[in-house]
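[09:14] KT: can someone run the structure on this one? pasting the chain below
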Amino acid sequence: MITDYWSFATFLLQFAPPYSGDEAQRESLGKLGIRDKGAWPGTDLPPETVALMKEVAVATEKEIRDEAARLTDSFRIFGTPEFMKGRFMVRAAAAQGGIYGNSVQEALYVIYALDAQKTPLDGKTGRYKLTFTPKTLPPVDAFWSLTMYDRPKQFLVDNPIDRYLINSPMLAASRRATKARSSCTCSAKAQERSWNQTGSPPRDR
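[09:31] RB: done, structure tokens below
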């Protein structure tokens, strides 16, 4: 897709009219042959420019992914056009890391990608636990949930028990069943009986 980035961008412009304040950027894109309902590259674009733009697309895609990988929450990456005005890299990283995210007034997304030792989480080899006591449950008025994704692919982690999240309604049901307000420990590991399996259990070689 990266090699065809500008062709896709040209096609998608018809569905994304510019917000107020983005007109200058759209005009610059037009000078590079990226126009609403047009075809890219056009015959008026020199071959060396086409080649350079393809190289830039690859480098910029990496820059955006790196920026998205540094995100730890969604506090300042979603909002109104006025709030996001001019923040093009943040907007790109937000779309890369979590398209259709809500503004902080509606929801806050907290991202855990590293363990306590600052090592990237690895569901194939690691065993992780997150414990909430009755006093440290997320302070929300609506609901909270924990969801696990395969970060490189950005898909939900496939697992044999088809469990992809745990949320506050599930915890409330558990409390009603036990008639207690005990602590809650969420674990993620590649073993059976985990609240959220990270994939197939490891096998002996």
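[09:33] KT: thanks! The chain is about 30% helix and 10% strand.
[09:34] RB: yep, looked fine to me
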